[in-house]
């Protein structure tokens, strides 16, 4: 049944193509789109006669009034074109409400989680990608991430976007779960007729980080305009950018903030964290750090020369030594991405009562990025290993029988991901007018994403262990693996004794390529995410039999069925723990939800003194989840315009987000982290006031004496193994959201619209998954150690060291954010000069706090990275005749380099001049020239003044690519 239903969408589309033809010489025309929401309309007054009836973002009500109570910020295709946008997420992250979104920059190198390379994911209000609902034409799209509901924006065709609506605030009552912080709705072009083509290429000022984009769209109306078929193809290709391509991030020149080796507490002018270059990972080397005394410190380099220990930097680092540079682990700044997107949209109007529509999309994205190499600590190498240099061999203590080698294996290749994602989405449906006051719509959406992740340069554990244990074959005198001579000398799971090829750990790049190939493993992980959505609604009004003083009552009733499933299958080697990568298990799960919903619009008053408009509306939805049971969401809106030019609006809602598949059913897997233990004496003052007493309690429980606690230290430089898993006991999280604002559209300033809205979102029993370091800190930063976080940490008896931990989602947190958003649109004409369009979106972030567990103190992240207190996006467009010019600015205020908890706990934590990251100032300009109505050439410069990341960062507050240039053309026939 599933296959036949999804094929039906293709059949409808194919039939539409079969009955139409693209006639040569057809003039290009784009049907005029309905106006966007009120915040995007600069010249439309509050009410207009004879407006086109549409359904806008934020409501399923069919209304003639675009002045919705919910604040919506919209961006049209003209702005995207003027910006030369080929990656929508890069553009949207310049907006205040979406600044925390995850772009390709964030999902590359070691910053990308497993399977995340190349993804583009939206994050409204910095409350998480899983709390942001992404829609296409008001309907859901299948996720791009296994176990999640997050949509990969790479799959949305830039060339077909008519506008982007950003609705902030709870929208669960309208669209269902996941819209806790709001909705981003991509409205695609309809009724396209003719042929359009676009090509664009760009490159950075350094001659790298190039990108190429091309789009081709065919459209034709048929049957006297009753039908339309549109076929669009889009291609995008972006180059990989490595740290070595930026000198400031290469070698000893990279600067980071590290512990001051000369720090003395409470000494004026002496700070705990200082900027340093040439910082290295202590006692670890690319060519091998060799310890012959077994005391931990290396004595020799891999080539046999004495090891230079340099100057110790507290925290496991050094300077001026033979250790591996921290910058060597910087890896990729941007991934390589190639994307193909094909869209086929059709509609046919049988009659006013039956209008058929269908959509089909296929998107494929390939992403490639390299991260860190494999690394090893204190590998025991027996003294009969023939690769040991003579100077080292002479220093070996016979009682030890060998040496210990710590090594960063760059010569075995950097590990990375080569991911192919394929997304198929189909929509079939029908709508129509049952009467002048009654409209219906029914649709079915099917989506499927398949992900194939080829993990490159992983390592076979058994082969590596066998290959490093090299000896001389007494029969031939040649170097071979010990296991080839004695099959009992090791474990052979992925190979047979006799097949082993030795590798040389003493020096860099000195191994036989055959040995390197022998230990390398290429594994493949596969995921499949599937979505089914059936939606039916009936909307209309009561004008035939009942009206309020302001007009007839509008209503919507409907139902929805949705089924989501996800399956992740790691490579067989990973399942058995036979590679360097984490041991992973098959993870799968599904849920379905049955929902009923309704909306009501009550126009109380119209055209009365001090009540030009007075409306109240509401929505309610009940959902029954197979995973967590029933949940009810609701929303109430109000709008009052005392006069035509000013309108007050407000909304209050309760939103719900049910836990996703990964949070519920994620299989237990292995993870690693390096802990900066919060209970170290130097860290006791860097958390909540409860930290010292709680650390005293946990270390006492581990059997440490008062003297041991006072001198507690963790000298390990190794990653600690732990477990990550889902939690089937999770319950839905609930959000209470309210907004209040005013819209000004003064009749005496034609073309001006100003919207100012206050928003407040409080999320209760939020699902929170902290990383391992946060887990350790939250354990001791709560009122007592009787909390879920301490229960997930295991400390070794007698030493107090963290030796195990479990990371899993829990319903323990409360999140709260509030602020003021300003949206200004002004379109005006200056005689003999030209037409101008100004758009300003600003945000004041008043609060962003997290309560990590019941009873804990609120933890504010206001002003931290990607959470600035003040933000603004400005765009000014100018057109005169065939010439066009556009300027835009993405700005935000300075942000904290460290959390307030850290700096408040120690005024000497960092020099005040480094306490904040600098402001973001990214200026973009572009120009265009229309040869005629069919051909336009354009070009532009992004990051005009080449703002660079701040000291100590490689990505913040601006992208590392720097100033870039692009040029292209658009043709319409």
TrEMBL record:
GO terms for cellular component: cell outer membrane. Keywords: Cell outer membrane, Membrane, Receptor, Signal, TonB box, Transmembrane, Transmembrane beta strand, Transport. Belongs to the TonB-dependent receptor family. InterPro entries: Beta-barrel_TonB, Beta-barrel_TonB_sf, Plug_dom, Plug_dom_sf, TonB-dep_rcpt-like. Residues 67-183 form the TonB-dependent receptor plug domain. Its main location: membrane. Residues 464-944 form the TonB-dependent receptor-like beta-barrel domain. It comes from the Bacteria. It is found in: Cell outer membrane. Residues 1-29 form the signal peptide. This is TonB-dependent receptor. It holds the Pfam family TonB_dep_Rec_b-barrel.
């Amino acid at each position: 049944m599933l296959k036949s239903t999804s094929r039906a969408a293709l059949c409808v589309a194919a039939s539409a193509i079969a009955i139409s033809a693209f006639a040569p010489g057809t003039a290009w025309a784009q049907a005029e789109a309905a106006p966007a929401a009120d915040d995007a309309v600069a010249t439309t007054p509050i009410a207009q006669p004879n407006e086109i009836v549409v359904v806008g973002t934020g409501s399923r009500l069919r209304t003639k009034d675009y002045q919705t109570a919910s604040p919506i910020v919209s961006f049209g295709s003209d702005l995207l074109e003027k910006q030369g946008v080929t990656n929508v997420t890069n553009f949207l992250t310049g907006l205040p409400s979406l600044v925390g979104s995850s772009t390709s920059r964030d999902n590359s190198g070691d910053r990308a989680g497993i399977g995340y390379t190349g993804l583009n994911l939206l994050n409204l209000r910095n409350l998480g990608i899983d709390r942001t609902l992404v829609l296409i034409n008001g309907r859901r799209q299948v996720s791009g991430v296994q176990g999640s509901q997050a949509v990969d924006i790479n799959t949305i065709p830039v060339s077909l976007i008519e506008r982007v609506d950003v609705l902030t605030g709870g929208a669960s009552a309208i669209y269902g779960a996941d819209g806790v912080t709001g909705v981003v709705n991509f409205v695609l072009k309809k009724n396209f007729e003719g042929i359009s083509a676009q090509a664009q290429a760009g490159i950075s000022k350094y001659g790298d980080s190039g990108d190429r984009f091309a789009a081709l769209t065919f459209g034709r109306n048929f049957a006297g305009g009753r039908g339309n078929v549109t076929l669009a193809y889009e291609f995008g290709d972006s180059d990989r950018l490595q740290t070595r391509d930026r000198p400031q991030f290469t070698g000893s020149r990279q600067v980071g903030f590290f512990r001051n080796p000369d720090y003395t507490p409470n000494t004026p002018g002496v700070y705990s964290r200082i900027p340093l270059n040439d910082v290295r990972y202590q006692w670890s080397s690319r060519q091998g750090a060799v310890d012959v005394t077994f005391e931990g410190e290396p004595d020799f380099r891999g080539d046999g020369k004495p090891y230079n220990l340099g100057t110790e930097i507290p925290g496991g680092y050094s300077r001026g030594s033979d250790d591996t540079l921290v910058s060597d682990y910087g890896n990729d700044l941007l991934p390589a991405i190639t994307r193909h997107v094909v869209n086929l949209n059709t509609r046919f109007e049988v009659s006013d009562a039956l209008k058929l529509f269908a959509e089909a999309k296929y998107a494929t994205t390939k992403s490639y990025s390299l991260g860190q190499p494999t690394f090893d600590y204190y590998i025991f190498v027996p003294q009969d290993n023939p690769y040991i240099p003579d100077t080292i061999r002479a220093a070996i203590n016979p009682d030890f029988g060998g040496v210990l080698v710590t090594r960063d294996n760059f010569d075995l290749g950097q590990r990375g991901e080569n991911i192919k994602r394929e997304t198929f989405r189909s929509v079939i449906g029908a709508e129509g007018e049952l009467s002048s006051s009654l409209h219906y719509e029914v649709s079915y959406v099917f989506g499927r994403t398949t992900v194939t992740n080829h993990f490159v340069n992983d390592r076979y554990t058994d082969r590596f262990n066998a290959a490093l244990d090299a000896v001389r074959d007494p029969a031939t005198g040649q170097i071979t693996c010990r296991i080839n001579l004695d099959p009992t000398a090791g474990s052979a799971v992925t190979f047979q004794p006799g097949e082993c090829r030795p590798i040389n750990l003493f020096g860099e790049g000195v191994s036989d390529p055959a040995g390197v190939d022998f230990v390398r493993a290429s594994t493949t992980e596969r995921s499949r995410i599937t979505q089914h959505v059936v939606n039916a609604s009936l909307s209309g009004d009561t004008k035939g039999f009942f009206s309020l003083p302001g007009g007839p009552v509008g209503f919507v009733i409907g139902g929805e069925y949705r089924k989501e499933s996800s399956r992740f299958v790691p490579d067989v080697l990973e399942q058995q723990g036979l590679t360097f990568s984490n041991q992973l298990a098959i993870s799968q799960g599904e849920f379905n939800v049955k929902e009923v919903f309704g909306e009501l619009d009550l126009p109380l008053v119209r055209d009365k003194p001090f009540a030009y408009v007075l409306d109240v509306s509401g929505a309610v939805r009940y959902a029954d989840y197979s995973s967590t049971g029933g949940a009810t969401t609701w929303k109430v809106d109000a709008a009052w315009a005392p006069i035509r030019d000013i309108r007050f609006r407000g909304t209050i809602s309760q939103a719900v987000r049910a836990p996703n598949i990964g949070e519920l059913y994620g299989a237990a897997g292995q993870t690693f982290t390096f802990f900066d233990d919060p209970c170290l004496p130097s860290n006791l003052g860097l958390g909540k006031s409860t930290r010292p007493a709680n650390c005293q309690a946990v270390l006492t429980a581990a059997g440490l004496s008062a003297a041991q606690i006072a001198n507690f230290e963790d000298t390990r430089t190794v990653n600690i193994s732990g477990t990550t898993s889902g939690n089937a006991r999770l319950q839905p999280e609930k959000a209470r959201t309210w907004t209040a604002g005013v819209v000004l559209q003064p009749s005496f300033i034609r073309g001006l619209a100003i919207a100012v809205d206050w928003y407040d979102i409080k999320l209760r029993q939020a699902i929170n998954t902290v990383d391992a370091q946060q887990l350790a800190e939250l354990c001791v930063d709560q009122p007592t150690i009787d909390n879920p976080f301490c229960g997930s940490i295991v400390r070794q008896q007698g030493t107090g060291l963290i030796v195990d931990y479990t990371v899993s989602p829990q319903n323990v947190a409360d999140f709260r954010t509030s602020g003021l958003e300003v949206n200004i649109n002004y379109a005006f004409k200056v005689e003999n000069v030209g037409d101008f369009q100004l758009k300003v979106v600003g945000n004041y972030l008043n609060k962003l706090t997290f309560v990590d567990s019941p009873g804990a103190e609120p933890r504010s992240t206001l002003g931290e990275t990607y959470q600035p207190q003040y933000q603004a996006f400005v765009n000014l467009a100018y057109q005169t005749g065939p010439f066009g010019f556009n300027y835009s600015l993405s700005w935000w205020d300075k942000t904290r380099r460290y959390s307030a908890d850290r700096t408040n706990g120690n005024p000497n934590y960092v020099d005040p001049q480094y306490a904040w990251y600098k402001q973001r100032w990214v200026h973009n300009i572009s120009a265009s020239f229309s040869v005629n109505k069919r051909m336009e050439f354009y070009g532009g410069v992004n990051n005009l003044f080449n703002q660079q990341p701040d000291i100590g960062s490689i990505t913040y507050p601006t992208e590392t690519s720097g100033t870039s240039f692009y040029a292209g053309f658009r043709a319409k026939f």
